[in-house]
Design a protein that fits this description.
Elements: H1 2-7, H2 9-15, H3 42-50, H4 52-55, H5 59-82, H6 90-98, H7 100-106, E1 107-111, E2 116-121, E3 126-130, E4 135-136, H8 140-144, H9 149-157, H10 172-178
Antiparallel strand pairs: 1-2, 2-3, 3-4
Helix pairs in contact: 7-9
The protein binds zinc ion (ZN).
Zinc ion binds at residues 127, 136, 138, 140-141, 148, 150-151.
Amino acid sequence: MNEMKSLDNDAYKWMTVPETPARHWCRAFFNTDVDCDIMINNICESFNAWILDARGKPPVTIFEELRVKLMRRIAVRKEKMKGYHGNICPKPKAIIERDKEKAAMDCIATFNGGDIAEVENIEGSKNVVNLVMRTCTCRRWDLTGIPCKHAKSAIYMKREDPDDYVAACYLKKTEDLNEYL
Ligand SMILES: [Zn+2]
């Protein structure tokens, strides 16, 4: 930010106004408790399109239509997941599988004798992975709840499975538990 200030003071001012704090638009300041690193508002756009029929109606009617729409959606999703037998939901599972090989080829993990590893990347940079805290200095794991390639490399070095390090919100059993709440 100091570098930006020296390049363009107006841009610096625009980016530091209190009405739009950095925690709303910069991943470095995102809350890591929510397991989500999405910075775009596509989900709002999709939701808006989804409720198009209801939007022009009086508030109580909108809420009633939304309630029924959501109920149907939840029911459809639950039905779909009944036929799915993996432990991790399909999308996070695909993300884990996507760069498994890359993690093995691009990263070399060295442990400190405990659960913290220094991971050297193929291009020479380094990251620190903490398997107990489930964090990596690239912050991808902290933000998404899904181990990044550095974390995977460290997990493999311990001869463990990255699937065991995925956040609980992505597990099928968490959804099953919710049914009883
Ligand atoms: Zn990482």
